[in-house]
Amino acid sequence: MHLARTTALALAGLLTLTAPTPAAAAAAPRLPAPTGSHAVGVTSLHLKDASRRDPWVPSAKSRELMVSLWYPAAGTRGKQRAAYVTPKESELLIKDAELPVAPDTLSKVRTNAFTDAVPAGRKRGLPLVVLSPGLGSPRGSLTSLAEDLASKGNVVVGIDHTYESVATAFPDGRVTTCVACGNKAPDFGQQVVRSRAADISFVLDQLTGAKPKWRGAELIDRSRIGMAGQSVGGASSIAAMVRDKRIRAGANLDSTTFAPIPERGLARPFLFVGSPTMHSPGGKDGSWGRDWKQLTGWKRWLVVTGAEHASFTDVPLLAEQIGIDLGFAMTGARSVEITRAYVAAFFAHHLAGKPQPLLDKPSARYPEVTFGG
Known about the structure:
Shape: globular
Radius of gyration: 19 Å
Largest sheet: 11 strands, mixed
Order of helices and strands: EEHEEHEEEHEEEHEHEEHHEHHE
Number of strands: 15
Number of helices: 9
Strand content: 15-25%
Oligomer: single chain
Helix content: 25-40%
Structural class: alpha/beta
């Protein structure tokens, strides 16, 4: 299957451009409020892995990553709401998607997390969830999900896989672009998930090792780590779990799994959530059916009627607010609601040990979601 690229507000072959309405153009887009009980803080870290060269730019002697950490906050008084992306990142993302809106539009999105708020929780008391975005997309494209998980008592780390995003801003002013997006190698899908698995293991080392890079790292329960990703980020969940046994549970949001599960199988919990065109049982993408047989532990295969590939990100929600018609059957608000509900339930069950009836059978609250496999 072709490895499609998703930017922050574009999906190859699906974007229908229309001129923004005056009302949409006047109001800044906003993310829906998180549904948990905690205020949310966020901070960014610049991490450098000197043990390996960058896989896409060999002249870079180390692999550098930008990550965001969302977490329960003790209070937000005096703190500023976090930017969704920087103005330069917004400019490059909008230019890449050829959107008829102001270059700084995405930098004005109203988030619900507060920059560098004091973390809350008891020592070793919070699960850690890794989020990996689609190819071409920044870590910010999963902010609605990240904020919601943090509001429910998780530390969430979103990773910008450098040179795999249209725009990644570094503290020294550099902004890298998507070198990997032009890769035509037949095994590119396997290359990118292997690289991302290495990124994820490195980030876990930086957050849970002897000298963690985040001031709130002592709150993380190292025995309760999960991962979810959209598009190739979802495929990377399996690759990362195969590589790193610290990841107890994983979720794939609508991606072909380019690197098959080894013959020995994968016994840790796994969740598939997909769009009907590609990921209904027997659908166009056969990788889920192949991998389903190799998942030997707890597993679910959910198909969301009306969803498209980008529905598991902030893309449709923000597109609607700035007057861009994606032609999706499901509204952005509804797709965010469903994604949040099922991903949060999955991690509550497998990282916090809380029973989640939502995962056991179809729900009248979410009739769009059917159980497959």
